[in-house]
Write a structure and sequence with these properties.
This protein is an alpha/beta fold. It is built from ten helices and eleven strands. It has two domains: 94 residues, 3-Layer(aba) Sandwich (Rossmann fold); 124 residues, Rossmann fold (3-Layer(aba) Sandwich), CATH 3.40.50.
Length: 280
């Protein structure tokens, strides 16, 4: 039976650390402020934004909410981002994705000042990660590294397979594992012999967007399995990209869905906000 990696408990540890650091900064006269911009009323985005507000309140981080109508133009959004770039009170700027179809997400993300890019999506942040310079790291992959480390799962020298090559999870995940001295393979929709490749992984990170696709026959016995996916099954219950019931008896450690990777994303956002206030 696999060890269950409790993302809720580990996220709580990270947020408690952020809360203590925020208190220390406040004693030095330094406050932390996160501006969150949401365009439209996508239900999932509204849930995420609300959870971010709650996390800010817990950690002692001020949050500014900008809830813009769906018909907001890209130019209007960019004007707001530039205004927040120049606002000395604001340490971090987060534009909730996805944006409406009439907007170019890349153009908006590129407008955010790199020193306030707490989502870690700006090309400067991605470039800094790729060449080993300090900078903000995308919150989900950064959270996965913390899940592994705080669960005493060694990365150095291990065979790591990442399924997914998105700019938000797959690519930065691979670079972070390399930074921790893992031996990394990135698989994707065009990968041949995916099952055989996965069976070589000591650490398997699944961000492929297909519900319960990864079954027990993809798993090396004793492997650590990190499930980034989140879906609704036929019974309207949350599930991941991994078929938990079949994989759990084979794996050495596994994240549940929900309660695994998800809580870590917001916890690492809080971590990035604290770093922004420190000027890191």
């Amino acid at each position: 039976m696999a060890k269950l990696i409790d993302g809720k408990a580990i996220a709580a540890q990270v947020k408690d650390e952020c809360r203590r650091q925020a208190e220390q900064l406040k004693e030095q006269g330094i406050s932390i402020c996160l501006a969150v911009i949401q365009v439209g009323s996508d239900p999932a985005s509204s849930v995420y934004v609300n959870n971010k507000k709650k996390a800010c309140a817990y950690c002692g981080i001020e949050s500014l909410a900008y809830e813009l109508p769906e018909e907001t133009t890209q130019e209007e959004l960019i004007v707001l981002v530039k205004k927040l770039n120049n606002d000395q009170r604001v340490n971090g700027i987060l534009v909730q994705l996805p944006l409406p179809d009439h907007m170019d997400e890349n153009a908006v993300i590129h407008t955010i000042a790199p020193e306030k890019d707490v989502d870690g999506f700006h090309p400067w942040s991605v470039g800094a990660l790729s060449i080993g310079l300090p900078g903000f790291v995308s919150c989900t992959p950064a959270g996965i590294i913390q899940l592994l480390k705080r669960s005493d799962i060694a990365i150095e020298g291990k065979q790591c397979v990442v399924i997914g090559r998105s700019n938000i999870v797959g690519k930065p995940m691979a670079m972070l594992l390399l930074r921790e001295n893992g031996t990394v393979t990135v698989a994707h929709s065009r990968t041949k012999n995916l099952r055989e490749l996965c069976r070589q992984a000591d650490i398997l990170i699944v961000a492929m967007g297909k519900p319960r696709f990864i079954t027990a026959d993809y798993i090396k016995p004793g492997a650590a399995v990190i499930d980034v996916g989140i879906h609704r099954n036929e019974n309207n219950k949350l599930c991941g990209d991994v078929d938990f019931d079949s994989v759990e008896p084979v794996a050495g450690a596994i994240t549940p869905v929900p309660g695994g990777v998800g809580p870590m994303t917001i916890a690492m956002l809080m971590h990035n906000c604290v770093c922004a206030a420190k000027g890191i």
